[in-house]
Amino acid sequence: MKVLMKGNEAVAEAAVRGGCRAFFGYPITPQNEIPEYLSRRLPEVGGCFIQAESEVSAINMVYGAAGAGARAMTSSSSPGISLKQEGISYICGAELPCVIVNMVRGGPGLGGIQPAQSDYFQTVKGGGHGDYHMLVYAPSSVQEAVNIMYDAFDKADEYRMPVMMLGDGMIGQIMEAVELPEMKDPATFPKREWATDGTGKGKDRRVINSLYIEPDVLEEVNHRLFKRYDVLKEKEVRYEEYLTDDAEIVIVAYGTVARIAKSAVNELRQKGIKVGLLRPITLYPYPEKALNDLAKKDCVKSFLTIELSMGQMIEDVRLAVNGLKPVEFYGRTGGNVMTPDDIVNVVLAKEGK
Amino acid sequence: MEEKIIIAGFGGQGVLSLGQFIAYAAIADGKEVTWLPSYGPEMRGGTSNCSVVVCDKEVASPIVARPDCLIAMNKPSLYKFVDKVKEGGTVIVNSSLIPDKVERDDVKAVYIDAQELALEAGNARTANIVILGAYIKLSGLFELDLVAKMIENKFQNKPKVIPANLKALQLGYDAAGK
Fold first, then answer.
1. In the CATH hierarchy, which fold is given to the domain comprising B2-177?
2. pTM metric for this prediction
3. What is the spatial order of strands in the sheet that A22-25 belongs to?
4. Measured between CB atoms, does B60 come within 8 Å of chain A?
5. CB distance A4–B60 less than 8 Å?
6. Residues from chain A contacting residue B24 (CB–CB below 8 Å)
7. What are the tens digits of pLDDT across the range A193-219?
8. pLDDT in tens, A31-68
9. Which of A173, A208, B134, B169 minimizes the number of CB atoms within 10 Å of its CB?
10. Domains in chain A, please, with CATH?
């Protein structure tokens, strides 16, 4: 049965159903409904909810809980996610699974509280220090956010790395009808042979750490992580193509912006302009092959990247297109959101109409 | 079909819940819907609005630039959004608080004395439900019975307020049909 739910609340419920039993966070708009919901919901399933004294503290609680084998998560919005970066780097270095939600708002600094996509670089290119990546998803509807969150802990476990869900203020605040999946049974979750849960003793003692003083050892750790990222690139890339078969202009957009772009594509098609849309669902690994394949098609004349930023993802689009076709940009920032008409007008102007 | 609605007014007028009622009705009717609120440092007495999109297939953009229908609960909201309404669209004006007439002849303007009708229904706080009734009549999107059932459902924990809300719904529906 479908129920009408706010994005933030649906994400929180999906996390619980996907096995989350520990949440640590600190309030910030526009994601407050996630901790609010979980503060009530987690105790019902024997879970743990703590409102930490700061974001730094919250991410380090996630580090500790994940190390002890819990399915742990945190959520925040841009300035709060910046504060968590040190902890995220440590968690990646210690090869621990966890889930992090960022309902992005405009920046830099405290910025504003309205939707933005200006944390793309921070999310997919690092943010914290050192050579690391996370598996990054960008849902464009509440249902998709639910589906991603439901499996996020499994993916984090499988690859022993944080999974980041990159939303924005809109996906957090919007209400849509969703179908909630069944509660997963924690008894079916994989055994954590590495967790410091008191079962490893003597010569099997377990250590969770991200400090490797020996250069050769640290180099090996880096290579091990990147082998895992290669597997991600092979197995986890997800994207949606919409009307790209005969498209002359391919719009590239993710998250809620992709929905706005979809409306624009529909309207432009009615005007006889052959526009299509490629929507990355994973931002890391990025659907570079799909984009490169489109760039190689004769019918495709150009790409138009649309973001709620000054142009961040466009760099990955350009890398994937690799100079085969021109890549242009349209964006709004500051918490302002483009309308479908704005996109239609940009494309019409481009076509000289 | 695709129907885009903007509902705007003071915080505390039930603007967001009016939008949610339309969303609940859409789901009960098997349609797809998005409900997107304006959010910010808002408070009772401040301005508030939400965009609702009802569609028979997946809703693409939840952002509404040109609504098919504007529901204006107060004067600033009317002037903020009236020029955005599609040609041939509908503007529902809460005439209890807005003495002005809509200065466009390419839209259908309907004036509902929501406060007066809410008092007649027996609960001053049902003004948004009066407007919901008017919207149901004007849009023709849903059966009145379906919406009435949904109201009973939503208020099942506060059964005392159900009769006034149902009456408000009917009064609004009838007022729009005159």
1. Pyruvate-ferredoxin Oxidoreductase; domain 3 (3.40.920)
2. 0.95
3. A48-51, A22-25, A72-76, A98-104, A162-168, A135-137, A282-284
4. yes
5. no
6. 4
7. 999 999 988 888 999 999 999 999 999
8. 999 999 999 999 999 999 999 999 999 999 999 999 99
9. A208
10. 2-235 (3.40.50.970), 240-350 (3.40.50.920)
